[in-house]
Amino acid sequence: MPDFESYDDMADEGERYCRELDGWLATFSSGKKKRPDNEIASKTRRRAWVGKIVELCRRAAEKRRDAA
Question: 10, 4 in Cβ contact below 8 A?
Answer without folding.
Answer: yes
